[in-house]
């Protein structure tokens, strides 16, 4: 049964004036029913959205409320519903009919909510569209393949390396060592590779998965970048200048298990050279090992190997950022990342988990472990940002405690504090934030300048009146 809803002028105005974007579109009721497929397919292939039919464009009618020009009966929209229902594969959508409160006659407007799909959809004419801004963009064949990978329908791990000889991989030490660790009767590398579809049964061409897992140096045979890069910046700022980039730069290659293990060791060493102020004095910042390791493993295992880029780990004075190439797979978003489970590279995940000391032994619990360990260490929660090209996960060293308490405790221990020390201690992004905090604490009488003649970076702060060291 269809839902018929009466709405007031405030909601009507919002629908008539709302900016069309990635998640909202409106069309005239004069459009052909078949045209509804473009918007619906575009939303389903992207992040989902709302389509409203029965509102005229501003070019036709300048007065917002007069743009509400629907149909006199809901039956007149049957062609639109049938057009959507006829798509194959089907689109997940719901709809309702809206009419204005207080009008003598009812002009019905059709509101359709299209949900994000794990499938790739096309219109009846065969066009694959995706919503970008206020437009539905037609995708060429190559981009359709990218969309299928992003949705997890296909994985780059199964792509054949037709120009790569299989022998160095099949007969190589990484695969033999792996097989020797398994409790299987037949440890023949060729039989195993065929069974696991790591090579093509007809051409014997190896897959990208086989090269990533068992090639001595995957970067030499995989056509796209697949290493881990680690760099260090001597800065806490959000906007980083190249002058802050240190010589502490590393590129880690090798089969995945070895790459992960070496990258973790290297990351720990790089962090140890990032000397900052802490409550105890100058020392290397500390992050929970499990948090660092789990984000590293996820960045390598769940990245999109169709994207020619390396996993990039950037170490700053106040945070560690992991950038993994590719969008989040399937239905996973930055909002449900703690609860959703979807593997872009299931073969890599499954085979790597067979090692005795598998880096992904706690399958599916990695991100939850990261958040739990950071909270236990007294830090704020990690941040997750997807920009359509890559996923960035940042471990912040910012403490969850009261800034005033942390600052006064430091002064009690070291007798005074500077902007530089506070910036490190609170792990914030800019000196302006510290200046604001100091100003507020000074106004409250909690701290005071050691010498009122001091200015700028030379200012040192001590406890205010009534506060004893």
UniProtKB/TrEMBL annotation:
Coiled coil segments of this chain: none
Which controlled-vocabulary keywords does the entry list? Answer: ATP-binding, Nucleotide-binding
Alphabetized InterPro entries for the sequence? RecG_C_sf, Schlafen_AlbA_2_dom, Schlafen_AlbA_2_dom_sf
Any idea where the Schlafen AlbA-2 domain is? 20-139
Named from the GO MF annotations, one term is: ATP binding
| One Pfam family it belongs to | HATPase_c_4
Q: What is this protein called?
A: ATP-binding protein
Q: Which organism is it from?
A: Vogesella amnigena
């Amino acid at each position: 049964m269809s839902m018929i809803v009466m709405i007031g002028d405030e909601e009507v105005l919002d629908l008539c004036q709302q900016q069309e974007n990635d998640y909202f579109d409106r069309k005239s009721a004069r459009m052909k029913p078949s045209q509804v497929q473009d918007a619906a397919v575009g939303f389903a292939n992207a992040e989902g959205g709302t389509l409203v039919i029965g509102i005229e464009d501003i070019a036709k009618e300048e007065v917002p409320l007069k743009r509400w020009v629907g149909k006199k009966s809901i039956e007149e929209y049957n062609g639109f519903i049938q057009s959507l229902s006829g798509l194959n594969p089907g689109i997940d959508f719901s709809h309702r009919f809206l009419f204005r409160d207080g009008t003598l006659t009812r002009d019905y407007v059709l509101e359709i909510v299209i949900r994000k799909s794990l499938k790739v959809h096309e219109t009846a004419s065969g066009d694959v569209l995706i919503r970008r801004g206020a437009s539905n963009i037609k995708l060429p064949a190559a981009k359709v393949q990218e969309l299928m990978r992003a949705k997890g329908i296909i994985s780059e791990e199964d792509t054949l390396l037709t120009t790569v000889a299989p022998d160095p991989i099949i007969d190589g030490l990484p695969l033999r060592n792996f097989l020797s660790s398994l409790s299987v009767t037949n440890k023949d590398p060729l039989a195993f590779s065929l069974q696991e579809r790591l090579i093509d049964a007809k051409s014997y061409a190896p897959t990208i998965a086989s090269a990533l897992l068992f090639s001595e140096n995957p970067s030499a045979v995989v056509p796209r970048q697949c290493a881990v890069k680690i760099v260090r910046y001597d800065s806490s700022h959000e906007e980083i200048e190249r002058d802050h980039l240190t010589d502490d730069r590393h590129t880690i290659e090798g089969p995945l298990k070895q790459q992960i293990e070496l990258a973790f060791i290297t990351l720990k060493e790089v962090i140890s050279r990032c000397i900052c102020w802490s409550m105890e004095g100058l020392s290397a910042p500390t992050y929970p090992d499990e948090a660092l390791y789990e984000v590293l493993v996820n960045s390598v295992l769940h990245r999109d190997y169709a994207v020619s880029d390396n996993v990039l780990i950037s170490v700053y004075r106040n945070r560690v950022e992991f950038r993994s190439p590719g969008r989040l797979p399937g239905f996973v978003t930055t909002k449900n990342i703690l609860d959703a489970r979807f593997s872009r590279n299931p073969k890599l995940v499954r085979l790597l988990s067979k090692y005795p000391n598998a880096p992904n032994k706690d399958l599916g619990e990695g991100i939850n472990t990261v958040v739990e360990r950071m909270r236990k260490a007294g830090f704020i929660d990690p941040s997750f940002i997807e920009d359509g090209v890559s996923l960035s996960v940042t471990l912040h060293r910012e403490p969850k405690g009261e800034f005033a308490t942390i600052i006064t405790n430091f002064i009690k221990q070291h007798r005074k504090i500077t902007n530089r020390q506070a910036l490190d201690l609170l792990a914030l992004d800019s000196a302006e934030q510290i200046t604001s905090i100091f100003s507020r604490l000074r106004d409250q009488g909690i701290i005071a300048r050691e010498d009122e003649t001091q200015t700028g970076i030379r200012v040192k702060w001590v406890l205010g009146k009534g506060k004893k060291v």
